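## Example record

The block below lists the input lines for one assembly entry, exactly as stored, with component labels intact.
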Amino acid sequence: MDLDQFFPYQLARLAEQVSLATAQVYQTRFALGRDEWRVMAALAQASEMKTSDVLGRTTMEKMQVSRALAKLERDGLVERSPDPEDGRAYLVRLRPPGLALYRKIVPMVQAREEYLLSDLSEAERKVLSAAFAKVGERARQLIRHG
Amino acid sequence: MDLDQFFPYQLARLAEQVSLATAQVYQTRFALGRDEWRVMAALAQASEMKTSDVLGRTTMEKMQVSRALAKLERDGLVERSPDPEDGRAYLVRLRPPGLALYRKIVPMVQAREEYLLSDLSEAERKVLSAAFAKVGERARQLIRHG
DNA sequence: TATTGTTATACTCTATAACTATA
DNA sequence: TATAGTTATAGAGTATAACAATA
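Predicted structure tokens for the full assembly:
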């Protein structure tokens, strides 16, 4: 069995490299962790949302979201206020510095994305995207059924 | 910016799911970590090799290999002897129980691989494989040049 | 009793480098 | 001085569950 020809292994290596290449932008240059970046991207989709909405817009666990928000709040990028409709909940929003940082990072990571895909034709991108959906569905089936 | 449509994010999620689906076989059922599994797959390619050859056949660091080998040796799956040609080096090989375990696992993970890809035509698989190579090359360029 | 969000804990991974013994 | 491999340590990332406040 040749590990190099084994699809899950190829996929894992590619994902690792792509993740490294992309994360350089927000980690090395702006000291943001991956979770903080994901939370900011979620928050940027609306002027204000509940913590639970952030959960719904990411694949993160509530504990990861809680910690990412705490760090973003310490850094002054995000602010929280109590939800007037539910005493247990918070309303979260990007503060101006957070929004500015987000708007600065987005074009940079999008440029990296385009560079990563630049050798692929439009047709190849379509196949790739469809293949991701199909393989992902099969993977979820395997996980569900042990 | 929609994270769900962002290629590096899609790739990371897919890899995570596929890794989970594949690792179930050797982790849950046989208590092997990913590194141990990779080392066993490398060792199975020859009757005996140096630790440094294991390094060359995987993308692991020497420290990871050292730890994986130590665990495999504790579990009786691998044995080491001093290299008569270099007092610093070791010769490593799978012990019979290790080889038997490897031969038991291989068809199981291959079946999972085939299942994961079962919705893809031969042509789609070719596109996918070529795309991985192209994107991987671009990613390595980005990593190298910051 | 159930839910929102926080905190605690432990385990795995990863990254860096110091260390030993040979070469 | 360099190399093979080990050990130490610290930082992320992940998973589980206990917990306080509120519903």
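The beta strands of chain A are 49-50, 78-83, 86-94. Chain A has a mean pLDDT of 95.
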